[in-house]
Amino acid sequence: MNPRERVEAVYAGETPDQVPLILDLSHWFKKNFHKKFDLTGYQGVDEGLVSLHKEVGAVCYCEMGGFYSLTPDSKDIVFSTDTKDGIFSTKISTPLGTLFEERSFSNNSYSYNIKKHLLESVDDFKIVEYLMDHLTCTPKWDVYNNWSDALGEYGYPYTQLPYSGLGYLISRNFGVEPTVYADIDYPDEMKLLTESVNNRNLKILDSIIDGPFSTLLISDNYDSNIQTKQLFDKYSRDYYTEVARRLHEKGKTFAVHVDGEMRGAVTWMAECGVDCIDAATPAPMFSLTPEEVRRQAGNDIILSGGIPATVFGLQATDDEFIQSVKDWLAIRHISPRLIMAAGDQVPTDAPLHRIKMLPELVAEYGRY
Q: Is the pTM of this model over 0.90?
């Protein structure tokens, strides 16, 4: 089997010849190849990133830019962005008010940290709700097809929905503390805002669902220490269940990017019909061992991840890295619903020789 066929087999519920290997090398590539970090994302195929995935023998599955565009249907809504002195700013003007965000570039992390959140108070929620009602989705399947063709057997592009309502607030545009306090102090406003975002996303899904992709990803950056079961049940459970239902009706699959503490969350998501936990990060970065993750998730959901950033990068030795890979691959004997990947992106300090070790390690310790 070739690398892409292994991924396809796992999603089809079949057992491949060995555990598939996929990696998100986009952040590592930008840092180590001295590429400008553009927050607007890739506008087309980056041949350097394609070549890197082929060189290291890992399937590319995400961070290829957007496969659709969102544009306002009213001239009264204006988006503008600007980058100056390492500050990336976004301004959204609407008839109900203006939203403004600032992010500052850090060379150490090679990323843009949030300096000022887009939303400052619950008073801004009405602006977001208005915006969600006035966005139009236009698919860009030519971009998808260009990436897929360029990557060949090393490509399995996921199509991505924006943050869910809860993720929009807690992970991205409002912050943890303001979101938690708003849930307590302004439950009606929280419900309206999250439903507005979720309903917009379902309209996007309807616009793209017949596209050429096989798997859809929601990158909510979930962490059950923060996004508790109470919050999940209130704001995410019904939405995830509906996304899964619509995808499954079309013969497509559903992945959620967790990238945080999985304890409990893998069970809740499995109950919703989620097919894959992406960026599954076990101990020592988070609390669960690979075996414990599998036990909580059950045997039917795909676990994609396994290598914590703290082990992939320079904080750990080669021996510790190899042991982490072997521990993750060992749970293939419990269920073949398994993908070898980084716990989120490959960190920028990961040595190239470790990345290149992975195909040999998977071939040795990940065969069925």
A: yes
